[in-house]
Amino acid sequence: MPAAVQNKPRSKPTRGLANPSERSRQSQSGPSPTPLQLLRHGDPVRSPDKSPGLRLLVKLRQISTPIALIAVLGVLPLYAWSVSTQRSWGERYQNHEQLRQDVQRWLTETETRKHDITEQAELKPQGYVPQGPANSIFLPEMAPRPAHPPIPPARVQIKPDVNAPLAY
Amino acid sequence: MSASITSKSRRAAIESRLRNTKPVNLPGYQGRLIWVWLALVVGQFGLIGRLFWLQVVEAPRLSKMAQSQRLLKLSPKVALHPIVDRNGNILAKDEPTFRLFAHPLMFKEDKAKIAEAVAPILKLSVDELSKLFSSGETGIPIVRDLDQKVAKQVRDLNLDGLELNQEWIRTYPQQDLMSGIVGYVDADHIGQSGLEYSFKSSLKAKPPSNWISEDGRGNLLPERFPMRPLNADELSMKLTLDSRLQWSARTALYKKLNQYKALRGSVIVMNVQDGSILALASEPSFKPAQYYKADPALFRNWAIADLYEPGSTFKPINVAIALEAGAIKPDTVVYDSGHISVGGWPIQNNDGSAHGAINITKVLEVSSNIGMVRIMEQVKRATYFEFLKKIGIGEITGTDLPFETAGSMKDKAQFIDYPIEAATNAFGQGFSVTPIQMAQLHAAIANGGLMVTPHVTQGLFDPSGKLVSKPNLIPTRRVFSEKTAASVRKMMDSVVQNGTGQPAKIPGYRLGGKTGTAQKAGGGSYRNARITSFVSLFPSEAPKYVVFAVVDEPKGDDAFGSTVAAPIVKAVLETLISVDGIPPSHPEELQKLTGTAPPKPAQ
Fold it and tell me: Which residues contact B433 (CB under 8 A, 6 or more apart)?
């Protein structure tokens, strides 16, 4: 922890010498490096320098974490709702299909019964007689309505009210 | 103070210890570090490799597998479109059925237990079912034509090794009423006769093409569902036929066939304006659901597929030809001597009597063969032949019903060189037509000279009633002038009012008609067997319909067109009046009949 454990006054930081060869050159030519000093009780502790980018990232993290939590909590019921809606749609569709099948089956059954009834009536008329012109009532077509002459608009003569004041 | 010293000395000791403590590299430390690093790197590459394998190499197969687990196609609603009459009554319709197979190899329970569970549902005995289960390892057909309810009961048992395959069964609720027109489908659901045969490709319903997703429970999900209405492809083939009229025609025909012990018969009701057929009853017929029990000869509707010599019902057509050719006028008089000889062949009237000098109307009224020969002698034989060709004798009508047979007539040289050919043609013998062609020819007289194509289909309609496709028919063409057609109609009215067609008279109405009684040809000569027929144009004032009845080989001395066929036409016309609500042209006749005053026109 060389950055955190510092002597007072602080020696010149060697952070910039990242290259090992450079460091070795410095150790050979320059003064020997200051030995690490232990932090004494009561020494003020300075936080390391932060670049603006790092600070921005930290800030973003502080903001995004609660947003992510809220989003997760918000999406869960939405997801549940969508799943439930789709399932309920599927069940209703099956119902609808079943009803359609029933309708189709009943249509066929109705036609078959109609045929059976007609056949029965042919075999055993039971007093029924086939419909023909002799037992039908023909209503003649309604005679076309006479074209009414256009009603003249009521003539209302507008006379000036002589008693009305013409001016004030 | 001492506490402070102690604390300081302790701190100094700790500091000193820390100062002297140096990190110690344990032996093999770096090696292990490299191994761990290598393991992580190899693992990472392994994961990348696996990802590539799944996402790129195996992607098509896996995507197909996933699709088959999640996606399915909607089951088709029908295999063949339904057929309905002009009022929407169902004539043919598909119903889903199921076929049950057993695969004992996949049974997870004892065969006997499964047999006990399934037998009561299928209404089979447990022993019978157990025997079937023991007859093989897989693919044992158990039963077919199970309805949906029974299939659901079997499915609800959730037994492994039982497989239900959906099939279709064609139902014909009207049974044999229209079997001669609608036809039937065989066990493979393929049309074999009637419209089921001639429109088999048009009737085939398109299976649904959309992939729909489903959840783990098998419920459909809406995400991929088509936006258009689901029933948009559910078409139905609408016919021009009227079930009620068909009933009436069949009943009237059936009664006469029984009364005269006739071989067969047919009744056709045709709209003369467009050639649409409202009824086409042919007896005997067959039940399409039990086609395998029927005589295969019945699968061909004889009104379309069989030829006969039309006899006297062809006389009005010949009169129209002579009028159109300018050989005669409506008031021309010919001499009927009762019998004559043409080219050495004797020809006589049906009753052998001579009618003397008679006009054309009278020739038709009394159905004089000699009179007709005299009329057609005035038309050049080449012209006569060409006219017969023009009106389609020897050709098919082009109807949409299958197995139509073209008529037959002598070749031109024979027709011109031998006078007997034209003479026999004059009274409707020596050539043959189908009953439907006779209806077509009389429709041309009724509608003012236009040859319409007889047909029974209106086309395919969608659920909203919109026409999707209609059959291609031969276009209407003129064969007679309106004047000629009107003259012949007038003569045919007189046949019903004063002549042989009187049995078809309906009080309150006027109709034109012509009887026909022809000897049947067989073995190169004419036999005693007859074909009786009657054709009617109705109503006379403005004909809308042709009703034609033909009865083959009625037995009895009184079996004529006027006694056998005319009453059939009358019965059908009476129903037609009710069905179409045709008001009487002479209500006073009805008043006399019923004893009631006709209603006054509404004000």
Answer: B307, B308, B310, B314, B393, B407, B441
Mutate to test the interface with B, among A115, A120, A142 (most CBs of B within 10 A): A115
When mean pLDDT is compared across B184-193, B285-294, B362-371, B582-591, the lowest value belongs to B582-591
Cβ–Cβ contact A84 with B under 8 A: no
B438 lies in some domain: yes
State which H helix or E strand residue B235 sits in. Answer: none
Domain-located, residue B498: yes
The rounded distance, in Å, linking the Cα atoms of B230 and B116 is 40
Number of domains in chain B: 2
Of B96, B219, B598, the CB nearest to A91: B219
Cα B37 versus chain centre, distance: 79
Quote the pLDDT of residue A44: 64
Strand order in the sheet with B525-538: B277-283, B264-271, B545-552, B525-538, B512-522
pLDDT in tens, A106-124: 998 999 999 998 888 888 8
Round the average pLDDT of chain B to a whole number and report it: 89
Instruction: Give me B131's structure tokens.
Output: 């025997």
B120 and B259 share one domain? no
pLDDT at B568 over 50: yes
Q: Residue B106 contacts by C-beta under 8 Å, 6 or more apart in sequence?
A: B138, B160, B161
Nearest to B578 among A89, A104, A136 (CB): A136
Q: Give me the interface pTM, i.e. the ipTM.
A: 0.74
Quote the tokens at residue B202. Answer: 């048009």
Q: B2 — phi, psi (to 5°)?
A: -60, -35
